[in-house]
Amino acid sequence: MNRRQALLFAITLFSIVLFLVLNLALGTISIPFEDVIRILLGKGGEEQEIWYNIIWKSRFPQTITALVAGAGLSISGLQMQTVFRNPLAGPSELGISSGASLGVATLILLSGSISQKALSRMGLIGEIAVTSAAIIGAMAVMAIIMIISQKVRGNVVLLIMGVMIGYIANAIIGVLKFFSNDEDVRSYVIWGLGSFAKVSGDQVTTFVVLMLILMPLSFLLIKTLNLMLLGENYARNLGLNYRQARLLVIFCSCVLTAIVTAYCGPIVFLGLAVPHLCRTLFTTSNHIILMPAVTFVGAALALLCNLIARMPGFEGALPINSVTALIGAPIVISVLFDKRRAELT
Question: Could you report the per-residue pLDDT of 141-195, keeping only the tens digit for each?
Fold first, then answer.
């Protein structure tokens, strides 16, 4: 690691701390920074009970969810772009997000038709049911992808298969929406917009623990990912079982995407934009640098997006996917233009 990269890591870590505190302090109700620190240290008085509840029961779970989800999606995106050697590959390209969406759509849209009671009215039971349905849907698609990856050798064919599975899932969702009532369709559309605020209570602990187990496992694949950059033939000559390695990387990426989608809904552009941004900023393709870089930058960018979505002056919160798209799309476009300009010069 050179001095420039070390400085970038320091700036990124400082940004994470800054955005974390801003997420706790700013919102529909602004809380002074010194009071935020005092409450976090457990020194809040009785007059601060309202602020205490806002921070610990609402903003802190949402902030931690954004931090962990952003890091997880960015790691997943880096793995996908490396294994497929495709700059436009992202966490959702293999249909995992579509599978989770299909699971949720099936539950929400059919539950109202069968029981005549909208799932959104069932409170905590409804939230747990939606999360479980998303995990089941994502894992079902992932199982199909794993089977296909053992039968298909080419990465391009596998990528196209994943996209086709996504189209099939979206087609089924369209049919379900056509035959469902307006309230159920609205509930599904709101879920599909994505939100870091859906995770609360014991769900936060479960989500964070799962991600903290899965993300470090991705770091064990750094050497494998570096070998994959050399191409299949070179990697095989260096002793890598390429097909097994590809299966392992895809599995790890899919599980990360599935868990985030289940708890937060389908979050777009973070997994696609952050790896591009990190390659440009850190000027390297070495995953020893890139893996921690995308983890920290993804966390910082997710916190920034969550902060913008809850900026003072907004009633409620903006859809997080609208914010991630507005930030992520220009990043990808600018990086691709820079690469094209470099190729021409």
Answer: 888 888 887 777 777 788 888 888 888 988 998 988 888 888 888 888 888 888 8
Q: Is 147 helix (H, G, I), strand (E, B) or coil?
A: helix
Any idea how long the chain is? 345
Give the DSSP H or E segment for 20: helix 3-25
Q: Which two tokens stand for residue 202?
A: 């014991």
CA distance 220 to 222: 6
Per DSSP, the residues of 239-305 read T--HHHHHHHHHHHHHHHHHHHHHHH----SHHHHHHHHHHHHHT---HHHHHHHHHHHHHHHHHHH
Q: At what angle do helices 155-178 and 60-84 cross, to 10 degrees?
A: 140
Q: What is the pTM of this model?
A: 0.88
CB 235 within 8 A of CB 242: yes
User: Residue 150: CB partners within 8 Å, gap ≥ 6?
Assistant: 243, 247
